[in-house]
């Protein structure tokens, strides 16, 4: 990358954070669990906010605005944690500047925006990945191994739910369409991603749900259908809490991922004719460490995509989410006012 003389495989990967909000507050401490990663910079539209975040987490450089961190030759990779509609513009500018990007879910506000980011990353051969931390948790790693070994036969059905009781507040980001609000992009991304991970791209998507007064989707149920009869039943809600569990049903057994499935510590395997087995596999730190490790390993190996969270999967999930939103009458937009 520009201005770097020592190959990235021979030194720590130097990270920056763009968007020091709630999720970034949880992610930052997990860098301590990642060998060969250094968190060296943070950027926000507010210099004061960036500096406060840097002070809390011992980060050397804080930038007000995004131009400074994009031009910082001592930053290799950027974790983008701004609201969804800002992801596209920042990711495009980061990739153009030669920075690898780990983009918070949902990847962008629209499928077209996601496609533009993917196209540029592939064109410029710069690493890009959606920050779907669930796929890298030890529990999911073990489940993938079991499924690949045929422990539950062919996976035919997936069930997953994720709901929270969030009182309606039109000023809250979750209910503000301009900020990418709604249950689908914030919670639905998890349930859709786990279904897509084990079943692939569906041939049909049916949805039922309700909207908040702002027009944001407040709750939804999705049925993903496949030509051969496989299916996924998925629930998400900002109106009511749910356990946050997920189940994989196969021809020879089942797997239940215990709540909350998007950052699990245990699961139960049920094989036909055998007693269920429970596996406990806690993550490192909060659990964000595992996606950071994946990015580091990919960069050191010279890969521009992750095999576990490839860009094709991100596009499929984005297509399902935006399509379901539009069935409910919710149309998201990218934020064209982002200054980068």
TrEMBL record:
A GO MF term: nucleotide binding
Keywords: Oxidoreductase
Protein name listed in UniProt: Predicted dehydrogenase
Protein's UniProt keywords contain DNA damage: no
Domain Gfo/Idh/MocA-like oxidoreductase N-terminal residues, every copy: 13-129
Any Pfam family hit: GFO_IDH_MocA
Domain GFO/IDH/MocA-like oxidoreductase: 142-256
Family membership noted in the UniProt record: Belongs to the Gfo/Idh/MocA family.
InterPro entries: Gfo/Idh/MocA-like_OxRdtase_N, Gfo/Idh/MocA_domain, GFO_IDH_MocA-like_dom, NAD(P)-bd_dom_sf
Keyword Oxidoreductase: yes
Record organism: Microlunatus flavus
